[in-house]
């Protein structure tokens, strides 16, 4: 089936009729529908899908070990875009079609894979499927994670009729991993090229800031008598913005929960999640430490308290430079860094030679309904991925 047809099939799944954004939460209806679609598409190609105990999927073309795995993920952030994740899966299927049309027979098996809960938007742990598969996160640790509604990860997986005791995606068949992804930035736009390869992933992570104070009446409590954690949080958000700007890094408070969340009440607790990214591990540690110190200082003045908990932290990932250079030579593609996390980074950290193919994003907007890639660029990405897979699977 052509790329455009597959893309049309996916377009309605999990899409909000009001905002146009996508809500494809892992182990929920839209994502389950997408995994069923993937199984059907693989069956059309005579490929049997293996699903592990948490929902990671892979289908192999050819037998043997030392395979070349490609693919991405199908889940989305809340109100996300259409391309982040699914573009890599659809492109992988289309690339296999292209190789078969060329009459190519792989000497190394080629796999098409889907990792679950890459975004971490439901259970707060980015790249959870690949982390569990590689052992970067243990099941004993992960099963106690809860979503915003208080549902345990273990229960969500059981409700999806999966069983972690059945085992996780075996890595011993994977000799190389190649992930195609829409670029989440404007590097390729500025270079005026449709396709690029990744050199590295910036270190990044998520930290939970719990600001505690004293609930009180919004009208009767004098301003000087308040212990208001919202003030401490507000100053911390401004401090994070300033520290990131001064250092040329990234810091974002994008999620906040307030208790008791009443219009006429001073809150007792503000919980906010910091997403921070930097060009080096040391720069990330320094920036987050500076933000925390400023928050602590402000808490002392506000009569509040602060607890900071790292929830998901990934160190810098440098992709195999020889592999990147070898593949870049196939199409004279630029090799560029990315500030976004990916399953490719987890597999690379586990010792699997890994590369990433990026497809131009004309606006650079991502994690938003405005995320976009032109069809011509997507098709250029499919052709590039097919060339890469042919090179690696000869």
Summarize this structure as a short list of keywords or feature phrases.
394 residues; alpha/beta; 12 helices; 2 domains; Aminopeptidase; 36% helix; four-stranded antiparallel beta sheet; globular; nine-stranded mixed beta sheet; Alpha-Beta Plaits; 23% strand
Could you please say which CATH topology of the largest domain applies here?
Aminopeptidase
β-strand amount: 15-25%
How many individual helices? 12
Query: N- to C-terminal separation?
Result: 24 Å
Radius of gyration: 22 Å
Taken together, the total number of domains comes to 2
Task: Give the number of DSSP strands.
Answer: 15
CATH class category name of the largest domain: Alpha Beta
Which of globular, elongated, flat, extended, rod-shaped describes the shape?
globular
The CATH architecture of the largest domain is 3-Layer(aba) Sandwich
**CATH homologous superfamily of the largest domain - what is it?**
Zn peptidases
Which structural class do the helices and strands define? alpha/beta
Pfam families: Peptidase_M20
InterPro entries: Amidase_Cbmase (IPR010158), Bact_exopeptidase_dim_dom (IPR036264), Peptidase_M20 (IPR002933)
Keywords: Hydrolase
Family: Belongs to the peptidase M20 family.
């Amino acid at each position: 089936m052509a790329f455009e047809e597959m893309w049309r099939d996916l377009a309605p799944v999990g899409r909000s009729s009001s905002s146009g954004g996508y809500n494809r939460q892992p182990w929920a209806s839209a994502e389950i529908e997408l995994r069923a679609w993937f199984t059907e598409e693989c069956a059309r190609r005579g490929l049997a899908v293996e699903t592990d105990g948490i929902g990671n999927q892979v289908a192999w073309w050819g037998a043997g070990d030392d395979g070349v795995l490609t693919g991405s993920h199908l889940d989305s952030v809340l109100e996300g875009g259409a391309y982040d994740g699914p573009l890599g899966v659809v492109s992988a299927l289309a690339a296999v079609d292209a190789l078969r049309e060329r009459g190519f027979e792989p000497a190394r098996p080629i796999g098409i894979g889907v990792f679950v809960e890459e975004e971490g938007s439901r259970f707060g742990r980015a790249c959870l499927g690949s982390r569990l598969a590689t052992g970067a996160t243990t099941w004993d640790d992960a099963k106690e994670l809860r979503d915003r509604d208080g549902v345990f990860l273990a229960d969500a997986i059981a409700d999806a009729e999966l069983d972690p005791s059945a085992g996780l995606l075996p890595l011993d068949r994977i000799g190389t991993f190649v992930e195609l992804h829409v670029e989440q930035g404007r590097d390729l736009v500025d270079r005026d090229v449709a396709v690029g390869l990744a050199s590295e992933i910036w270190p990044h992570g998520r930290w939970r800031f719990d600001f505690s104070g004293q609930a009180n009446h919004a009208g009767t409590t004098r301003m000087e008598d308040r212990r208001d954690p919202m003030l401490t949080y507000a100053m911390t958000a401004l401090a994070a913005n300033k520290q990131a700007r001064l250092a040329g890094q990234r810091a974002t408070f994008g999620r906040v929960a307030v208790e008791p969340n009443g219009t006429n009440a001073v809150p007792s607790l503000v919980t906010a999640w910091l997403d921070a990214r930097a060009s080096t591990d040391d720069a990330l540690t320094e920036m987050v430490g500076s933000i925390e110190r400023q928050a602590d200082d402000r808490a002392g003045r506000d009569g509040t308290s602060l607890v900071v908990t790292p929830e998901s932290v990934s160190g810098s990932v440098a992709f195999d430079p020889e592999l990147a250079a070898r593949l870049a030579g196939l199409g004279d593609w630029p090799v560029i860094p990315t500030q976004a996390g990916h399953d490719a980074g987890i597999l690379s950290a586990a010792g699997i030679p890994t590369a990433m193919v990026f497809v131009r994003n004309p606006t650079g907007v991502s994690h938003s309904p405005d995320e976009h890639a032109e069809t011509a660029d997507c098709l250029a990405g499919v052709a590039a991925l097919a060339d890469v897979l042919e090179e690696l699977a000869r």
